[in-house]
Amino acid sequence: MLIGIYDPYLDDLGGGEKYMLTLVSCLSKNHDVELFWDKKEDLDIVTERFSIDISGIRIVKNIFSRKFSLINRLIVSRKYDSIIVLSDGSIPFVWSKLFLHIQQPIVNVNYSLKDQIKILRVTKVFCNSKFTQEYLDTRLKKKSKVIYPPINLKPKKIEKENIILTVGRFRVRNAGVADYKKQSALVDVFIKMIDKDLKDWKFILATSVKPNEEEEFEKLKTKAKNYPIEFLVNRKNDDLWDVYSRAKIYWHATGYGEDLNQRPDFAEHFGISTVEAMGGGAVPVVINAGGQKEIIQQGVSGYLWDNESALIQKTLDLIDKAEKLREMSEKAIISAKKFAERDFCKEIQNLISND
Predict the structure, then answer these.
(1) What pTM, to 2 d.p., does this model score?
(2) DSSP letters along 303-325, please?
(3) 92 with 183, same domain?
């Protein structure tokens, strides 16, 4: 079977790209796979960052670029048995079977009659969480399948330290919202805790930063100056397991301060880094929104919070109660393994083979 795959955000270095590249790697074991992308150097950077081997696939001209007309795309797509596209809700015309992967709620897409016809031609839609699925099925009027992101746990047997960690791609602006991952807001909260006499704890912010975002990122670093705040920038995923394994607490705040009833896409759509942190034994204290609610069992494997005061209170509760922190760390590891033990490759293979 010849399968074509297109991810328009391949150079973004986010969790969605890790999902898609793992999908590519899985399918290449049993099928001929071609990736639609014009700049191989972008692919080299992303695969190195995530340590994913896709040496068995071919890079071909991007038939979804503006350089290709619709007619040319249809002609070229005829040779594929299936094409998989990471979509923001748009539906391309192709001649082959079309599988759409959507990773966020669709809220600002108005489907015309033409779009409805294209939706009927889609073989299957699959998404990354039940949170995404809830909005997706309503808008598309087509039942989607949830395939949770691939999680590869690599915890290290090292001693825990008094570290609060957050991990996420640095985005100056994304989907129309500034400080998308709310890293600046978390820095503010930690500074407030230090100013109120929190001692012997450190906040680590691990992130990826693009060259055109460095100026804004420097502002965040300046704000954190003279506080026990450390930045890990552009580290490989494998390198993050050192800090996942050393951290005691994990913070996540995507969606904080936003009107998530109007813009649910501003929330975290799943939370790969949260699961990875749990796999390293860090207890999650994360916002009660989006896909995070599918990951955390409140008060057992972590805490969910709705406002800043709750974030601080639940964090201090763990800091002050070492035995509770230890017990919840053990439960977090168990919960993370449930996601990691899902056979992502098998689910993807079945999706393609059964339609």
Answers:
(1) 0.90
(2) EEESSHHHHHHHHHHHHH-HHHH
(3) no
